[in-house]
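Hi support team,

I submitted a single chain yesterday and got back a structure, but I'm not sure I'm reading the token output correctly. Could someone confirm the output below corresponds to the sequence I sent? I've pasted both exactly as they appear in my results page.

Thanks,
R.
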Amino acid sequence: MLITGVLFQQATAQVKLNVNVNLGQQPVWGPTGYDRADYYYMPDIDCYYDVNRRQFIYNSGNRWVYAGQLPSRYRNYDLYHSYKVVVNEPRPYLHADVYRNKYRNNKQVYERQTPIRDSREERYYQVKGHPMHGQWVKNHHGEQRDRGHDAGRH
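Hi R., thanks for writing in. Yes, this is the structure output for that exact sequence:
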């Protein structure tokens, strides 16, 4: 019995080590509450944002276009206050109908999502552009360190 408990604890620890965290790459207008976000889907405008590439993906004609900013037709779109769905699957835009159907009722219906920029949680201090980026905070050992310059080391 004891051996089974030890094996279970080791397996659990291994799973925790393989979790992908990309808080430092998420934009300040992204929603809080996610340690990992590969893409955001914005049902209001039927667009995606690739967090790792830092590019928007939108449909133009019959193809999906990657761009550093949204097209001019969305110039009044408010990224900070719009509803975003976190999607952690490769190239979700290739299954656009699935996301359109699943989230079409969320268009113009906003549940309150706090953007990273407005969060006061220490875990977001490493996000460049966050108001507290680079502030001195205590780590889990009680030692002071500069989160802005120590975000990559654990």
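A quick pointer for reading it: The helical segments are 2-17, 96-103, 147-150. Let us know if anything else looks off.

Best,
Support desk
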